[in-house]
Design goal:
Elements (H helix, E strand, L loop, with lengths): L11 H39 L3 H8 L6 H22 L3 H30 L1
Helix pairs in contact: 1-3, 1-4, 2-3, 3-4
Length: 123
């Protein structure tokens, strides 16, 4: 007969509390990452519009980042967001890039919906 107690560590409660604490910190980092990404996107797109780069910004907001200008703008934006996440949240580069790749399309979709709704209301 095999006794399961031999396979379970003695400090399971401590490990469970540690895991729950780790998850809480990670959830907090995710909400901070969303705010950092949103601020970076708004600032970056504003600077691009001030430079007169209207077509690339429009391509990205319309969901057409595969045009030449849109692709360059999107990759530059991803790099800047990853750098901001590394600097502000003190996370590893791999995690920052992954978060930027996942969060950026969500922020851009929300932003483009807000812009489209605003123009519909004014038009």
């Amino acid at each position: 007969m095999i006794h399961m107690g031999a396979f379970l560590p003695g400090n399971t409660q401590q490990q469970l509390r540690g895991l729950l604490q780790w998850e809480k910190v990670r959830h907090d980092q995710l909400s901070q990452a969303i705010l950092v990404t949103k601020d970076a996107v708004l600032g970056y797109l504003k600077r691009q519009l001030e430079k007169g780069n209207y077509s690339a910004v429009l391509d990205v907001l319309e969901g057409k980042p595969m045009t030449v200008s849109g692709k360059l703008l999107l990759h530059d934006l991803q790099d800047r967001i990853a750098t901001n996440l590394i600097l502000q949240l003190h996370i590893r580069k791999v995690l920052a890039i992954s978060m930027a790749i996942i969060i950026l399309p969500l922020i851009l979709a929300k932003l483009s919906n807000l812009v489209i709704d605003k123009f519909r209301d004014n038009g």
